[in-house]
Write a structure and sequence with these properties.
The protein has helices spanning 2-16, 19-32, 74-83, 99-108, 129-133, 138-141, 186-197; strands spanning 38-43, 55-59, 90-92, 113-123, 146-155, 161-170. The chain is an alpha/beta fold and 201 residues long.
């Protein structure tokens, strides 16, 4: 009788949920438990952009707290790589810029929006054996990488601050091997691009 009940229950659950739903649910819980990479995006506004908007992407001059060895323009590069899947009209600054300089370049280039990004914080933990051997304080540095980004979306013509966003991300215990905080940037930036288009809530 117990086996019949379990088969019946499985059939009911299978008819209610698709394989994709089950996968999404399992992934969500694994991220929430800290086993997979996790990110959280907090936006000030729910502004949406048209897909043909011309966006100029620039990274600020700020050196991330806790991670001074980060590549200087890595957030701008990862933002471009994430946004190019959804916005065909993009340009990325080749070097970090001050805000006024970035606005001036965006205006002279005819961009509709400036996406000004900043690598606010990074925590690079040991992720492989070579890093473990190379540090004397290894025991205190084991763990998952963490980071924080700040984004400002500005309408170039009017200078109006359309949106601000704060992205916090951390690695997972199943995926921390041989990674850096910057390896975690692209997925949440891709999600932010989708939200700007209204593809996800």
């Amino acid at each position: 009788m117990r086996q019949v009940f379990l088969i019946f229950l499985t059939a009911i659950l299978a008819s209610c949920m698709t394989v994709g739903d089950l996968t999404d649910g399992a992934t969500y819980h694994l991220r929430d438990a800290g086993l997979l990479n996790h990110s959280e995006i907090k936006r000030a506004n729910n502004w949406r952009l048209q897909a043909d908007s011309y966006i100029y992407i620039s990274q600020g001059l700020f050196i991330p707290l806790g991670h001074p060895s980060a590549k200087p323009n890595v957030v701008a590069e990862e933002t471009f790589n994430a946004f190019v899947e959804y916005f065909p009209r993009l340009r990325q600054a080749s070097v970090p810029q001050g805000f006024d300089e970035a606005m001036q370049v965006a205006r002279s280039d005819g961009a509709h929006y400036l996406l000004y990004v900043r690598f606010a914080q990074g925590n690079d933990r040991i992720g492989n054996w070579d890093e473990f051997k190379g540090r004397k304080d290894s025991g205190a540095r084991l763990g998952v990488d963490r980071g924080a980004l700040q984004l400002m979306l500005v309408e170039v013509g009017s200078g109006y601050l359309v949106d601000t966003a704060n992205i916090r991300h951390r690695g997972g215990f199943l995926t921390f091997y041989n990674t850096k905080p910057e390896n975690l940037l692209r997925p949440p930036l891709r999600e932010y691009a989708r939200r700007l288009l209204g593809l996800t809530p």
